[in-house]
Amino acid sequence: MWGTRFKPNQVTIFHREKTHTMRPVLLLVLGLLLIVGVAILSGFGTYNKLVDADETVAQSWADVETQYQRRSDLIPNLVSTVQGAANFESETLQAVVEARAKATSVNVSAGDLGDPAKMEAFMEAQQSLSGALGRLLMVTENYPDLRATDSFRDLQAQLEGTENRIGTSRRDYNDSVAEYNKAVRRFPASIVASMTGFERKTPFEAQPGAEKAPDVVFE
């Protein structure tokens, strides 16, 4: 006769052997799918944490820019007030005006925070303005009548408060950058970061003495 005939007990044994053979394979596939699923979910969680850290850095940098802008907005009024003083040093005023123009021309967006060159240019421009402003305030000590005016006193008080807020915002920014950079470098988050474009941010590295605000305290 053609073909092969299995007795009932032989068919049962065949199915049992087939079932036993498929079961380990099925378990292996299910195990692999479970591992992949957990890895994907973990990757999503890590990605979301990196996004949160990145947004914190961006917000901290926005606070830094706000405080620098506040100082920049005060300077024209200060210059205008000082110009009213007789024989005031025009070179000192001009230095402040030029430094302010340069500082306002150097902009750094949240997307540039990973570019050390742009950050350095921004910090140098702001430091130059701080130096020019500090020299201007020192020169005003030679003009007691100017320092006695209410408008000048008010502007110096506002500048003092702004410089303090600048210092605070810079520290907050550096703290957020430190946390972000650690998150980007830690394993396995570093894998997700490299795959999704998260790069290290540049902290605010001020020049020596930049942490000290210009002297705006009255005698």
Give a quick summary of the entry.
By secondary structure, the chain is mainly α. Helix content is 75%, strand content 0%.
Describe the protein in words.
By secondary structure, the protein is mainly α. It folds into two domains: 7-39; 48-196, de novo design (two linked rop proteins). It contains six helices and no strands. It has helices at 8-83, 90-105, 116-139, 144-147, 150-185, 189-196. α1 (8-83) runs antiparallel to α2 (90-105), α1 (8-83) packs across α6 and α2 packs antiparallel against α3. The longest helix has 76 residues, at 8-83. The chain is rod-shaped and about 100 Å long.
- Strand count, sense and closure of the main sheet? none
Mean pLDDT across the residues is 81
| CATH architecture type of the largest domain | Up-down Bundle
Report the C-alpha radius of gyration, rounded.
33 Å
**Under CATH, the topology of the largest domain is which?**
de novo design (two linked rop proteins)
Structural class: mainly alpha
List keywords for this structure.
mainly alpha, 219 residues, 2 domains, disordered C terminus, de novo design (two linked rop proteins)
Which SSEs are present, and which pair or pack?
Blueprint: H1 8-83, H2 90-105, H3 116-139, H4 144-147, H5 150-185, H6 189-196
Helix pairs in contact: 1-2, 1-5, 1-6, 2-3
